[in-house]
Design a protein that fits this description.
single chain; 10 helices; 9-stranded mixed sheet
Length: 299
C-alpha cells in the first residue's frame, strides 16, 4: 500500500495527490461505519425516518429547505432542531422571521403536543404553561435561539455555535438559519443584482461554517413568486448560487391528500442530495394545532 502523504496546513490551496486524503477519507468511512454498527446515523437525526434514510441524517454541509409561505418550513426546521437537541447535541436557531420568544413557545407546544394558538392567544393560564414548561424543559435544554438582525455576521453565528458545543461538551452541533433572503437583503441595497450576490456570499459563508465546525447547517430559503409550490430547484429565489452550493435541497410543498380536521397534506421532495439518491418524495401530514409534521402513515 502506498505510504500516506502528510497534508501541510500551510498549503491550503495547493494541489495535493490522491494519497494525501487517505487519513481523512478513511476516518470519514470509519465514523459512518461505527455509527451504523451502533444503530445510529452518519449525521444528525431529522426525526423523519425516510429523510434520514436518504441523507444518512443531516451530515456536514449546507442543507436548503424551501417552500412557499404557510407550507410549514419553519415548523419543519424547528422540529429538526428539537429532534437534534433532544439527543443532547446543541441546536442553534437564528431567525430573521420570528422572535425567539414565539419560537420557544412553538418548540414547547410541539414537544408537549399542545395547541400553540392556545398558548399564544390566551387559552392557557401562565401557571399551566409554567407546568408544561417544567415538564419538557430538560428535552429542550440543548436548543438555543439567536435574535437575528442585519448586524449579525456569519462569524458571529459560528462563534455562537462553537460556544454551545463547548457548553454542551459535544463535538458536533446544528445551525439553523430562518431564513436566508432577508438576511442577505439587509446586507445589500434594493438592487436585485446586489441582493443576488449577497445571497451567494451568505451561502458560501454558511457552508464554510459547516466545514470549519464539521456540522450541518440547515438554511430556509424562499421561493420566487412564479415558482411557489414547485419542486424545481430553479424556484429558489436567487437560485443559481444556492442550487450549486448546497449539499442537499429539500422542497416542502402542499398536497391534496386529506388527513382529517386540522391536518394538512404535505410532500417533501429531495431535489438534490450529495449523500445519496435524489428525487425521493416523502409524504407528510402537517398538524396545524401543534405545528408539527409527521410521516403521512402516522395519521
Amino acid at each position: 500500500m502506498p505510504k500516506p502523504v502528510e497534508t501541510d496546513p500551510n498549503t491550503l490551496h495547493a494541489a495535493l495527490p490522491f494519497n494525501a486524503y487517505q487519513q481523512a477519507a478513511l476516518a470519514l468511512v470509519g465514523k459512518a461505519y461505527r455509527a451504523r454498527q451502533a444503530g445510529k446515523l452518519a449525521g444528525l437525526p431529522t426525526g423523519l425516518t425516510p429523510l434520514d434514510d436518504c441523507l444518512g441524517g443531516l451530515q456536514t454541509g449546507l442543507h436548503i429547505l424551501a417552500a412557499e409561505p404557510g407550507a410549514g418550513k419553519t415548523a419543519l426546521a424547528l422540529q429538526i432542531a428539537r429532534t437534534v437537541a433532544a439527543t443532547g447535541v446543541p441546536a442553534v436557531y437564528a431567525s430573521f422571521d420570528e422572535s425567539p420568544v414565539r419560537l420557544a413557545l412553538k418548540a414547547l407546544a410541539a414537544t408537549a403536543q399542545v395547541s400553540f394558538s392556545e398558548l399564544a392567544n390566551g387559552g392557557t393560564s401562565e401557571e399551566k404553561a409554567g407546568l408544561i414548561w417544567q415538564q419538557h424543559a430538560a428535552t429542550l435544554t440543548a436548543l438555543s435561539f439567536v435574535p437575528a438582525d442585519a448586524k449579525l455576521t456569519p462569524h458571529d453565528l459560528a462563534e455562537q455555535v462553537r460556544g454551545q458545543m463547548d457548553l454542551q461538551q459535544q463535538q458536533t452541533g446544528l445551525l439553523v438559519v430562518d431564513y436566508l433572503q432577508p438576511w442577505a437583503g439587509a446586507m445589500a441595497s434594493a438592487n436585485r443584482v446586489e441582493i443576488r450576490a449577497a445571497v451567494g456570499d451568505m451561502a458560501l459563508a454558511l457552508r464554510k461554517i459547516a466545514l470549519d465546525l464539521d456540522i450541518p447547517v440547515l438554511v430556509i430559503s424562499a421561493q420566487n413568486r412564479s415558482g411557489q409550490g414547485s419542486t424545481s430547484m430553479t424556484s429558489l429565489r436567487e437560485s443559481s448560487d444556492l442550487e450549486y452550493g448546497a449539499d442537499s435541497i429539500m422542497m416542502l410543498v402542499e398536497s391534496n391528500e386529506a388527513h382529517g380536521s386540522g391536518i394538512y397534506g404535505r410532500k417533501l421532495f429531495l431535489a438534490k442530495n450529495r449523500f445519496g439518491r435524489s428525487g425521493n418524495e416523502i409524504k407528510l401530514a402537517f398538524d396545524g394545532r401543534t405545528q408539527t409534521l409527521h410521516e403521512a402513515g402516522g395519521f
